[in-house]
Structures are given as C-alpha cells and as structure tokens.
Design a protein that fits this description.
- With 158 residues, this protein is an alpha+beta fold.
- It contains 4 helices and 5 strands.
- It has a single domain, classed as Histidine kinase-like ATPase, C-terminal domain (Heat Shock Protein 90), CATH 3.30.565.
- Helix content is 37%, strand content 28%.
- Strands 1-2-3-5-4 form a 5-stranded mixed beta sheet, covered by helices on one side.
- β4 and β5 form a beta hairpin.
- The chain is globular and about 45 Å long.
- GO terms for molecular function: protein histidine kinase activity.
- This is histidine kinase.
- Its EC number is 2.7.13.3.
Length: 158
C-alpha cells in the first residue's frame, strides 16, 4: 500500500507541478522540457525530440496534454526502460508520438481506468485529428505507443 501511495504522490506532482503557489496559465509547448524534467525527477528515463514550430493555441494545448497524460501513464504502467517523446510539424499537422516499454514490471502497477486514453482521444477528435494507442512491436521489444496527428490549420486559419 505504501508503494501505491507514493506512486499517487508522484503522479500528482507530475500532473500539477509542485502544488505550491497560484495556478499556472494554460500550458504551452515551451513547457515540455519542464514537464519531461519532472518525469525524470520521478524516475522515468525520458527523451524529448520536439520541433513543433508555431501551432495554434488549441493544438498546442492538446499536444501538451497528450504528452502529460502519456508520461503519467508511463509512470503508472510502463515497464522499465526509455520513454521517447517526439513532436514534429509536417504536412500541415503536428505529429505527437510517445512510446514507453510495455510488459511486466516489478513493484506496484496502478490500476487503470482508461479515462486518460478516452480524454486524449476526445481532445484530438475536437481538433479533427487522428489518435491511436496500443502495444506494437519495435526493434527494442514491445512498446506502448500513443500517436496523435493534430491539424495545424483548420478552416483556413492558422
């Protein structure tokens, strides 16, 4: 039980920052490095490769929240190993990809409700993007991959 309590505390820090002070403004992609640093502080081995360029605020917020939820899920459920976060603008869209090791792990595994995946899927759908998540084989074993494509332009506006 102590292990689960500690995991919940770490997830709270990852989701909410340090919990001190006033609420922060709407997160932007400029905050990804700090988000990843927080995940590292909580024990994840994370790489970040982000070159999103300029994107509209709704796309920026959705991408940030997808990465945030994916890191939270990795902390709760992933096997030991590297988590890779990649964001790249291409063909009028922002591609977001987060991979984490998938399989058995030592220690407690927080129960999953699926609400995080549902929330990511709904956020992407609101922007007329595509979303998929699930296990896949890679050159380094089985990984859990979250992949979202968010249109940068919608209705002729940027």
């Amino acid at each position: 039980m102590a292990g689960l309590a500690e995991m919940r505390r770490l997830i709270g820090i990852l989701r909410d920052g340090d919990g001190e002070g006033e609420p922060v403004a709407t997160p932007t992609l400029d905050g990804l490095a700090a988000l990843v640093d927080g995940a590292r502080t909580n024990g994840l081995d994370v790489t970040l490769d982000a070159d999103p360029g300029r994107v509209p605020a709704p796309v920026e917020l959705a991408a940030y929240r997808i990465v945030q939820e994916s890191l939270t899920n990795a902390l709760k459920h992933a096997s030991p190993g590297r988590v890779a976060v990649t964001l790249a603008a291409r063909d009028g869209s922002l591609a977001v990809r987060v991979t984490s090791p998938y399989g058995d792990r030592d220690g407690p595994r927080a129960p999953g409700s699926g609400a995080g995946l549902v929330g990511m899927r709904e956020r992407v759908a609101l922007l007329h993007g595509t979303f998929e998540a699930g296990p896949e084989n890679s050159g380094r074993g089985t990984v859990w991959t979250v992949r979202a494509t968010l249109p940068i332009t919608h209705g002729g506006t940027e």
